[in-house]
Model the fold of this input.
Amino acid sequence: MQALLKLSRAIDWLNAQVGKYVIWLIFAATVISALNAIVRKAFNYSSNGFLEVQWYLFAWSFLVAAGYTLLQREHVRIDVLNSRLPKKAQVWIDIIGFAFFLTPLCLMVLYMGVPMVIEKYQSGEMSGNPGGLIRWPVWLALPIGFFLLMLQGWSELIKRIAFLRGVGPDPMGRLSDQSAEEELAEALRREAEVKAATPTAN
Done:
């Protein structure tokens, strides 16, 4: 079990690093969008390539960060019933989900997606839009993203099995005791207190 927990920590570290740096893809998409708007207004020029590279970057950030999102337990969950169950029942539901739903889904996407990316790379398929980009780089995000998601699913599976065996911490607790909305409200409250305590210049 310790070897599996070590593997789980390695997967967690990998997806944490991906999540740490994928934000730059969103920043790049934002900059390109702004530059495209400026060039279009100032020089009456635009290109489909500018538009397509934005959704290329968005696709990469969305898909590649899926494993990081699972690590942070921020995927959408409907806990109306699940949250009322005993802790062990919740853990078993997650185990079944990771083993019999998430893993087969990811394997199917990889089975179908990898040959598709290879085919698009070999054919050099281009966008049908004038001035559009080559297609295989954006399709490559699909198998990479689902591979990282599958790895994180296995990591979460290991952590839950370790918890049931009494050799791991509770994997169901939030990384923070507060929801994202509560954390934002708390941050705004602290900022307001700091401003109120800071003397204003006359």
Residues 2-196 form one domain. The chain has one domain: 2-196. The CA atoms of residues 120 and 136 lie 5 Å apart. The chain has a mean pLDDT of 84.
